[in-house]
TrEMBL record:
Keywords: Kinase, Membrane, Phosphoprotein, Transferase, Two-component regulatory system. It comes from Maioricimonas rarisocia. GO terms for molecular function: phosphorelay sensor kinase activity. It is an enzyme of class 2 (transferase). Gene3D superfamilies: 1.10.287.130, 3.30.450.40, 3.40.50.2300, Histidine kinase-like ATPase, C-terminal domain, PAS domain. Its EC number is 2.7.13.3. This is histidine kinase. InterPro entries: CheY-like_superfamily, GAF, GAF-like_dom_sf, HATPase_C_sf, HATPase_dom, His_kinase_dom, HisK_dim/P_dom, HisK_dim/P_sf. The keyword Phosphoprotein applies.
Amino acid sequence: MTPEAFSVFANLVPDALLLLDVHGRIIEASPRAAQMFGEDGESLAGRPLGDLTKDSPEALQEHFRLCRRSRDEVLGAVHPHCAQAPRRMFARLLNRGDKHAEKYLLRIPVEDRAVGQFVLLNQKVDELGREITRRRIAEVELLEQRDLAEFGRDVGLTLAEENTTSAMLQRCVELMVSHLGGAFARIWTLPNGSNELILRASAGIYTHRDGGHSRIRVGQYKIGRIASEQQPLLTNHVVGDEQIHDQEWARREGMVGFAGFPLLVDGRVVGVMAMFSRRALSESVLKAMDSVANSIALGIERKRIAAELKRNAETLRRADQRKNEFLAMLAHELRNPLAPIRSGLELLRLQTGECETLSIMNQQVQHLARLVDDLLDVSRIMRGRIELRSELICLDEVIEHAVTTVRPAMEQHRHTLTVKVSPQRVWLHADRVRLEQVLTNLLTNAAKYTPNGGHVELSCRTEDSSVLVSVRDDGVGIDADFLPEVFELFAQNERELARSEGGLGIGLTLVRQLVHLHDGDVSIRSDGPGQGTEVTVQLPLADPPRSAGDERPRPQTHDIPNCRVLVVDDSIGSAKILRMLLGEIGVGNIELAHDGPSAITAAEAFEPDVIFLDLGLPGLDGFQVAERLRADRQFDATKLIALTGYGTEEDRRKSSEIGFDDHLVKPVSLEQLQQALSTSLNSAS
């Protein structure tokens, strides 16, 4: 009987009640009992019954022995010191058989009543005790169910919310300790391809993750065996269980229950979770642990896959970055040898006049230069380095320039080129050079992939707020399976006709990227091999200028006054070719330098009007040379023109900020050279 139950009984009956231990010492006394013995309730606790009566210890012990032999109430007598006459005493043994819980309940009637009333009272006491026990058990079960429900909920939230595997697992073991009553809990993970479990989380009386159990081989100790056998290990008899390795520790810490579960995903072990408890683990607790083991295993696997995907994405990003950097460097390196070749051809043409051999060589050099430009442009776009120089332009002029550019290719293949444009002038906000590049690419492709003597048509029409420019041919067409890939970088259908024309498979990729930068769209259609191809570019229209007449800009003339020019290039051949070319167009006073320091020395001695300066110089690079020259008042009027293979927007911006007056990208045509020289000298004058 608990103290709470005794208090309830004492308030239910009018008689004196005493609760004694097996040695006859008073545990609890009712108020009436204290009054009967002339004491207060607190002073009675812990005193032997013999201290309060005239009875001998032997008489009292005999009465208690009768209680132990009988399962019924035993009637006897007791003689309180403060009473004249003895009192009847009814005694009963409670919790029979439990040495740690046996007690004697004594009832001393205040008035003389029948023994049967005491029997009835004891029956009620038993009933009330059983009811209290049932309620206690129900309360404990409800509390356990609540804790288990909260445990499952909190583990689920943890698996969904925590960002890292370590934080997720640490929170899970903390929940095992707080909700399941564990002394301590741990989780090990097993990396792919490894034979060693690694301790990732620990909570309870041990929170450290180092020591002898931080790494456990599969099959070693109880944790390793759980992993190797892929079966749980459960016991409520830790002390004495041969599978629990450290028995001395288990006794010292008072461990009773242990539960270890393998963490499995598709039959593969990803870890082990385990918990020790100082009390027996109920069936409900074990089921709860079993149910979350699968969720924790899936959480570990999801985190592993996410980390692997992140690593792969970063690897791909770095590889893509290296590829783009390589393409940019390749394009730059190809431009350097192209520069003297192109300049040399221009020089031969000026010296000997036009001939078929020079014309063919010049066409091939121009083709190679376009390939290099395409390669570099794709690299810039992929790295986000392309910046449009948008202005209000007339589409007719762009079409005219593109057609002029590709006309030699059309004539070479004996194609019929038809151009159909809108009767009204069409205006766009666009980068004139980039848009011409788009149309030139489409027309060049049409010429390449159409058999000799074919037909190519460029048409233009407006539709709502857009203009549609289409290039259609009756060439080899495109297989339906390849159409979805046609705009991908380096994608090339097996169209043997064009192999002799060359190409890198980046033209349409460049077209799509440039059109998208103009807020437009591009589509391609083909009915199949031999049925031709049609590519359509859609671009947003712009309002025409207020005074949009038909007057076309007049071509510029390039007057080259007498001047001194310094050419600085680490390629001696390129520098010599450029000197000869400048001489052919009327420049008579030219000096050469081939590195940064000698460029500054030559400039100080020669006092040039114009300096063509390569950026990639030894000693001092072109930017450093320009900075030093601009810092010297002697060269305030000197024009600096960058002549380099570096042609990104960033390169142009940097050269302008340092003090260059113009920026030319190799290989430079004779027209570009004359225009740059004329503009610089005329602006100076």
